[in-house]
């Protein structure tokens, strides 16, 4: 940008031709000040970059998957000796839903990556002062017969949305043919919500729970997810000391072609252009506008091979009468749910569809249990290790990435703290995709450094190697420019 400066009092004339640009200035003192002004400008740029992050192209990968030797020990994830030579990458997380108190509970996630010739390995660790154990993931719980379900905890078997404090309701009887339920009591009429000048009628046969303090709970579905977030009434998912949701972590691998893709999944309906009680919901819930991606999701209430996981307490995954799938219990590991999202929807990469519609009706034998995991909670932290073959069978190649040495991949992360109310689309996420490079090199010996811990949830001290600091690079470059300018100034005026 060129400023509209007034040089009339100091400039005799301004002459511009095709070969050169000349400035004839009346005041010789101003001429002598120009070098000083240039130096001052350089210093201003360099030091201002300390406070303002300039948009600089960054080619250094933020996570490196190093070549290692050895096998995994998913019964004790993170204990393998090769992990000791790989530094943690401290990944900042943010709220998926701004202004929602139950969103963005986890401030950071520590990540390491490696490959051992056959498998891709990702190790995660994050602060979890109140781990959610002995609680179901609602979707698979719906497949379990009542006789088996009653032998476990019933925590998490239903997701309940909590509306913003101050929302009130009335039952309007002028809506003929409507039935409503309040605290399991049936009423003739339609529930109408009111909040700060907003009135919002709810669909026929809606059931709400009104707590003694006036808070309103609504059973979860995609239509209500879209409606209440769109109108600013969603406050979070309801929890109390005995009712909460499982903990989760997920890795998203981008498989599309955009150069700067977004990792934000859409809040939407069950299908495109769904008519939800007179509202048109254009997008499908869980779809990704930037194109296809594969998701690996670990759930403490479904995929954790532990007696603290109710699904494993009753051997659900070994019961083919429930799942219709063949699962071998290897005792020391669980699995990650493989998901596939694109612009059309969110799918499960198997033929059963416990969480989401199956991506295919046949031809994906064993795919639900293809990604192995090991998990443990200790010293206030969850530690979860993911293991998946570098190459997948052709039947999976459309839905999961093939990992190649020397290639970079866009990857994003998410964490859910179930006891704090995070579940489904209410979570802590990376603000965008990071780059993961599959390196042909071994890690060598790395001296670990203390991580910047933004919470005081544990006495354990994780180690960290943060992603490259672009702001620092800009600052250093600015200082170098300023020093060079000073040298030039000295040479010009030393006589």
UniProtKB/TrEMBL annotation:
Spell out the Low complexity composition-biased ranges.
445-464
Q: Name one GO molecular function term.
A: metal ion binding
Q: Looking at the record, which segments are called Disordered?
A: 443-464
Domain of life of the organism encoding this protein? Archaea
Cytochrome c-552/DMSO reductase-like haem-binding domain residues are 80-428
Provide the GO biological process annotations.
electron transport chain
Q: Name one GO cellular component term.
A: plasma membrane
Q: Which UniProt keywords apply?
A: Electron transport, Heme, Iron, Membrane, Metal-binding, Transmembrane, Transmembrane helix, Transport
Q: Which InterPro entries match?
A: Cyt-c552/DMSO_Rdtase_haem-bd (IPR019020), Cyt_b558/566_suA (IPR017572)
**Membrane-crossing residue ranges in chain numbering:** 34-52, 474-493
| NCBIfam families named in the record | sulfolob_CbsA (TIGR03154)
Name of the protein in question: Cytochrome b558/566 subunit A
